[in-house]
Task: inverse folding
């Protein structure tokens, strides 16, 4: 299980700059991450999925709609 | 610890297969117990006898296994017979809703083949399974994933179930130590929250004591209670007469208490006390699974690890920016793509980039994979 706290630590480790509260808000859909935050967050989640035997199911920002400027 | 004392053996005697269990049935030993019972049931025969004289405790997983096996045998026209269960175990089975009826030796088809530890004439119980009430409830609680985000929801369910199941309970709450202070995480009503709050404010009371000492505290009659003079007057004013606080442990560390309040003095019979202990044990399992208690040292270590990882990734980005002539974000994308293609954590990939740079370019993993 991945808690918001652990997700934040993973995101932070990967170089993310947002706060733990912002991460929770991204997850709940209350805030929209910018392209870079999306990228880092997606990768933090995907690394967890890879640990569980998955294969990067979370889309990166380049994979879907182009980021708003 | 439970594994050392645990033992299970199967003996076949004519039409009966006997399973003797020694020690505790808990999450560590339950799989072995379940496998033994299943293997005994698979051997055919009219009945499976559970010889419990050396069983010291059984948890809800064990109860579930017993109930499921009994149900299955019963549906096949066979029987699960419980023999020589010590009184506390027999009570636990009864509380769990596995109803028992005492059979005298001559009425029991297996009675003539009793082991030596079961003298003739000693009452035996035969399991006649109906819906195992409490076991069913606690199983519902156990089925909830142990994610910290749903822990509070699970605890709310625990207090509702405990309130509904424990005789004499007028209100139930769960207190947990968060950020170094006790707080009520779930309560059945406001009076109960106020009871908890009164204890936090005065720093005394059965809830505070149970959470601190890791053992249970029972107040049979608040009118006669002398241990917590600062707390008891307020409790009496709110109409509470008896309290039962059981400790909640996460990985053997006391982290809070399950509190049961009643407006009646002497409200909790021994059956209720055992049921409270069962709920507390189950709640402790949820808390342990969710890793509710994380020591400061563990957290510090995890933070340092994250900091080191972040630093390595930043260094690797610098190396790639210089080599590839890309910006910071572009370097991150290079790292991420390589990590994704190799199914390797980004941090270990970054470490390789940094190490290759330190070796002055030979065997550069970034270039070779691009």
Result:
């Amino acid at each position: 299980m991945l808690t918001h706290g652990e997700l934040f630590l993973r995101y932070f480790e990967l170089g993310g700059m947002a706060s733990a509260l912002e991460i929770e808000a991204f997850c709940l859909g209350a805030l929209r991450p910018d392209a870079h935050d999306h990228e880092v967050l997606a990768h933090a989640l995907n690394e967890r999925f890879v640990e569980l035997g998955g294969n990067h199911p979370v889309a990166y920002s380049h994979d879907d709609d182009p980021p708003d400027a | 610890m439970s594994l050392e004392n645990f033992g299970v053996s199967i003996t076949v005697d004519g039409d009966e297969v006997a399973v003797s269990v020694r020690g505790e049935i808990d999450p560590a030993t339950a799989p072995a117990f379940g496998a033994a019972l299943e293997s005994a049931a698979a051997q055919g025969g009219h009945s499976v006898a559970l010889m419990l004289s050396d069983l010291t405790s059984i948890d809800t997983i064990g109860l579930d296994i017993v109930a499921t096996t009994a149900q299955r045998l019963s549906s096949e026209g066979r029987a699960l017979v419980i023999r020589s269960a010590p009184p506390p175990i027999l009570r636990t089975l009864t509380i769990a809703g596995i109803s028992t009826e005492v059979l005298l030796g001559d009425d029991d088809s297996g009675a003539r083949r009793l082991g030596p530890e079961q003298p003739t004439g000693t009452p035996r119980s035969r399991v006649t399974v109906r819906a195992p009430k409490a076991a069913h409830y606690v199983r519902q609680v156990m089925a909830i994933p142990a994610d910290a985000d749903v822990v509070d929801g699970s605890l709310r369910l625990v207090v509702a179930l405990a309130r509904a199941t424990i005789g004499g309970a007028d209100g139930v709450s769960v207190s947990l130590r968060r950020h170094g202070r006790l707080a009520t995480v779930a309560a059945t009503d406001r009076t109960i929250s106020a009871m908890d709050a009164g204890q936090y404010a005065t720093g005394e009371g059965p809830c505070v004591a149970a959470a601190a000492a890791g053992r249970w505290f029972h107040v049979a009659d608040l009118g006669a209670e002398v241990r917590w003079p600062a707390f008891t007057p307020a409790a009496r004013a709110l109409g509470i007469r008896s309290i039962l606080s059981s400790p909640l442990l996460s990985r053997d560390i006391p982290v809070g208490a399950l509190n049961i309040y009643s407006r009646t003095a002497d409200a909790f019979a021994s059956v209720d006390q055992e049921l409270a202990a069962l709920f507390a044990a189950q709640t402790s399992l949820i808390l342990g699974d969710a890793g509710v208690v994380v020591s400061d040292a563990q957290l510090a270590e995890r933070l340092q690890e994250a900091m080191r990882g972040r630093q390595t990734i930043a260094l690797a980005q610098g190396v790639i920016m210089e080599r590839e002539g890309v910006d910071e974000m572009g370097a991150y994308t290079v790292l991420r793509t390589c990590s994704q293609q190799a199914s390797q954590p980004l941090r270990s990939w970054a470490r390789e980039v940094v190490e290759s740079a330190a070796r002055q370019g030979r065997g550069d993993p970034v270039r070779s994979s691009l």
Remarks:
- Confidence is low (pLDDT under 50) at residues 99-149, 366-370 of chain B.
